[in-house]
Each structure stands twice: as C-alpha cells, then as structure tokens.
Description:
It is a single chain. The longest helix is centred in the middle third of the chain and has 26 residues, at 93-118. The strands form three sheets. The protein has a four-stranded antiparallel sheet with strand order 1-2-5-6. It has a two-stranded antiparallel ribbon with strand order 3-4. Strands 7-8 form a two-stranded antiparallel sheet. By secondary structure, it is α+β, with helices and mostly antiparallel strands. Helix 2 crosses helix 3. It has four helices and eight strands, in the order E-H-E-H-H-E-E-E-E-E-E-H.
Amino acid sequence: xxxxxxxxxxxxxxxxxxxxxxxxxxxxxxxxxxxxxxxxxxxxxxxxxxxxxxxxxxxxxxxxxxxxxxxxxxxxxxxxxxxxxxxxxxxxxxxxxxxxxxxxxxxxxxxxxxxxxxxxxxxxxxxxxxxxxxxxxxxxxxxxxxxxxxxxxxxxxxxxxxxxxxxxxxxxxxxxxxxxxxxxxxxxxxx
Length: 191
C-alpha cells in the first residue's frame, strides 16, 4: 500500500559573526534578518510502497523528513571522496552543496531503515512464530531551495522519471534495486 509525502525541511546555515565584542548595537531586526538569510528551505517529496501492508511505508513516510533535516544540519563525513567531493570540485561551493545533499538524503534513508528495524512494534509473527517486519520501497526527492536541482534517493523498484515537455518524452532516471537488477549489474561489471 502506498504512502506519499510532501514536506519542507529547513536547514540552518552556520555563519560566523562579524561583530566585535562590546558593540552596543541593539538592532534586533538586523539579527532576525541575518537568521532568516541563513535558513534554506528544501522541498521533500516521497513515495513509499509497503510490502505486507502499509505499516512500514507509513512509518518511513513519517520519519524521513526529520532524518533529512538532521543530516543536512550535521557535518558530512571527513572522507571527501565518499561525499562526492574531490580535487576537481573541492572549490566549487555549488557542487559541494549538492554532494552534501546526496549524502544527507542517502544517510536519512539508511537512518529510517535502521529505526524501523529496531522498533519492535513493527514486528509481526507469522504462523511459525518467526518475526517479520514487512518492508517498503522508497523514492525520495530533495528539491533545492532555489529549485535549481533535485536530488533523488531510492530503495527497491519505485521509479522516478524526468519529463521533457517540449518533446513530450519521459526518461527513467532511477535503476531498480532488485535481485534481478543486481545480477544484471554484476554481469555488466564482470565484462
């Protein structure tokens, strides 16, 4: 059963203060304007397709926006190569921000998965008494505050398409995470 998500995620940008100690500037409006300028509001959209009922997809939908917000505000890993930052783009702030968005989105999906697995209230017992959590596919999109780009992360066989309105075409932009796709990818890599 499907669950959908439309939400906003606000990232507070850290900025060093330029003020000197002892300034008696009581202009709180300047502080409020600076604070607003340091916030970036992302749009988040997601589709979750539950297996064995809607329970897990509902849990994923409820948890993902908060996990994305936490990951965007946290520091990305020190291993810059893992974060998609290398010598070629290390000075390009836009590419660094996009790499951080990809990392935050992927890590948020992992966080959601781990939290659902740990939550014992999600377990159902089958006829043999074996615990079964069920599952869900997920397709989550993080849209940049200026709408200049979107970052996708997905699990399973939920698909995203890019539509070219001038040519009336749709192109698949995700690859299914399935056993068959994994075997095909392994074969491609071996060649």
